[in-house]
Design goal:
Bound molecules: 5-S-methyl-1-O-phosphono-5-thio-D-ribulose
CATH topology of the largest domain: Rossmann fold
CATH architecture of the largest domain: 3-Layer(aba) Sandwich
CATH class of the largest domain: Alpha Beta
CATH superfamily of the largest domain: Translation initiation factor eif-2b, domain 2
Shape: globular
């Protein structure tokens, strides 16, 4: 497998298999793994071998395609039942990022509307999943162009978690804006928040920025306020896992406190997300925030750092209210204030 893409390709369909970078091994090793069954893809999503909202949306769609391809059913109804079973298994992996559900619904709709026999239905499912992967990169490039004018030459941009090539099929959302700014000839520096407990900032954002030759500085999560108060941050750009119709931004845990601090220091705060991240059916109070295993908190990379028996809370995401958001960058345009009122008008149908 090629490893020399300018920006990494995170999820690929390759000769009837799904290939994905094993993100649990980064930054030490860049390894592509091959998945031939939907159950393996579901497990990879759950264990964060693949992670990031757009990436898990495409991976799940490809998981359904694997189920279609591997089904022994000879009737449309039988095949669709097998696919439904896979879809429901994949849906149960992670609750917060809406892209997961969007991706699965889209391949299931393609299968249901495909004309002809089971062969045609399988082909339609696979080609829709492959199309979604290609579209993802194009969507991020468009989003990058929408966000690029927000960055000034010489800006220092802070980011949380990883909303880069590794969180998507390629190019990235928040980091897509940074890439587009550099492509437009601007000098942009990035402050990377380490993002405890899973360390997506330190392990993944730092990995892809260093690999692509960006000027970046890693900080601990506890240094965010200090850096802002000393005037060392010009803008914040983050990704999103779900943006509800009332303009609330669900993203990696820690994003809310970054937004509060940005607001305190008068620093613009921009979430960047493709249309597949918008949930125009729900308001913020109806979103499930994933709670992950306690070990992620009481251990650091496999080593226990807290006493046995300590109760742990490990919410994986938080919600930032629209009043803390300066504007949202989407591939369909910039969503300005009042965010809650403008979301549906700019996004239309996700
Ligand atoms: O738990 P993760 O690593 O899947 O969380 C990822 C994030 O929170 C990203 O910021 C979000 O998915 C946006 S990715 C373009």
């Amino acid at each position: 497998m090629r490893e020399d893409f300018f920006t990494l390709r995170t999820v690929l369909w390759d000769e009837g298999k799904v290939r994905m970078i094993d993100q649990t091994l980064l930054p030490q090793r860049l390894v592509y793994r091959e998945f031939g069954r939907w159950e393996e893809v579901a497990d990879a999503i759950r264990r964060m071998v693949v992670r990031g909202a757009p990436a898990i949306g495409v991976a799940a769609a490809m998981g359904v395609a694997l189920a279609a391809q591997g089904s022994r059913e000879s009737t449309r109804d039988g095949l669709l039942k097998d696919m439904e079973r896979a879809a429901s298994g994949l849906r149960s992996t992670r609750p917060t990022a809406v892209n997961l559900f969007w991706g699965i619904d889209r391949v299931m709709a393609a299968a249901r509307t495909a004309r002809g026999g089971t062969d045609r239905l399988v082909r339609a499912t696979v080609s829709t999943a492959v199309e979604m992967a290609e579209e993802d990169v194009e969507t991020n490039r468009r989003l990058g162009k929408v966000g690029e004018p927000l960055i000034d030459d010489g800006d220092v941009v802070m980011t949380q978690c990883n909303a880069g090539a590794l969180a998507t099929v390629g190019y990235g959302t928040a980091l897509g804006v940074v890439r587009a700014a550099r492509d437009a000839g601007k000098c942009v520096k990035v402050i990377v928040n380490e993002t405890r407990p899973a360390l997506q900032g330190a392990r993944l954002t730092a990995f892809e920025l260093v690999r692509d030759g960006f000027h970046c500085t890693l900080i601990s999560d506890t240094a965010v306020g200090h850096m802002m108060s000393k005037g060392r941050v010009d803008k914040v750009i983050v990704g999103a896992d779900r943006i509800t119709k009332d303009g609330y931004v669900f993203n990696k845990i820690g994003t809310y406190q970054v937004a509060v601090l940005a607001n305190r220091h008068g620093i613009p705060f921009y979430p960047a997300a493709p249309h597949s991240t918008f949930d125009l059916e729900r308001t913020h109070d109806r979103v499930v925030i994933e709670e992950r295993a306690a070990e992620e908190v009481f251990q650091v990379r496999g080593k226990r750092v807290a006493p046995k028996g300590i109760p742990v809370a490990n919410p994986a995401f938080d919600e930032t209210p629209p009043e803390l958001v300066t504007a949202i960058v989407s591939d369909r345009g910039l969503i300005g204030r009042p965010i809650g009122e403008n979301v549906a008008a700019v996004i239309g149908t996700p």
